[in-house]
Amino acid sequence: MLRSVLLFLLATFVQSMVDHEESEIILTAHGYSMDDVENRVVIPIQDGRIPPLPCVMANAGTHQHGETFTKNNFHYQCKNGTAEVVACIADDQSVIQLGRTFVRNGMKHKCNVVGDSVTYEQEAMCFDNGIHYSIGDTFRNGSFRLTCGQNGIIIEGCYLQNSGEYLMAGESRIVGRQRHECEVLGDGRVRYQVKVIGCMREGQHYNIAQVFTDKHVRYQCMNDGSLDVLGE
Predict the structure, then answer these.
(1) Which of 86, 104, 127 is the last residue of a domain?
(2) Where in the sequence is the domain holding 225, given as residue range(s)?
(3) What is the pTM of this model?
(4) DSSP readout, the chain?
């Protein structure tokens, strides 16, 4: 699973106004010269009154006061010469309101307001048992401790039987007469198993190397948990 993050900052569009004998106002897009005829608008002044100003944005054209428009992942409204972000727009044209988070098709979309700027973020998520998880989230599924990574779900470790404690993948631990193993099998697979230390026969536990007699037969407990028959 690929993770993509898009970050866009709201640029403050500065109005450049020039007064030519009090007869006109010239508005230019932020960063452009007043001589750039494609990114400016000239507003005549009548009777000394300044009308509501339009917004001039590079590569987005000119928009009248009160008009809304979209550029890249932002939806704007023109307010007397200033283009204000009113929402974020996802790549599938979904609308995310300011300050909200929106999840669709395994992707999380965030429209954050930070001071005078707005950021839009798009982040891949993990999905398991009907729940979405953000990258970095850790959660439990059965005996396994899982983490949502940039490329999907990672098996981080195994939970001990009937416990909230866990082993990291590849780790083992002896608890009482049991060995708990979180074994890495390859190809990203992990197996959790519990092994009795020593040998069991007829419900009786025997230590490794211990010799005992059962029904006139002598046994010895081997390292692998098997019983070696020594004879009668």
Answers:
(1) 127
(2) 199-231
(3) 0.52
(4) --------BPPP-------STTSEEEEE-TT--TT-GGGEEEEE-BTTBPPPP-EEETTTEEE-TT-EEEETTEEEEEETTEEEEEEEE-TT--EEETT-EEEETTEEEEEEEETTEEEEEEEE-EEETTEEE-TT-EEEETTEEEEEETTEEEEEEEEPTTSS-EEETT-EEEETTEEEEEEEEETTEEEEEEEESSEEETTEEE-TT-EEEETTEEEEE-TTS-EEEEE-
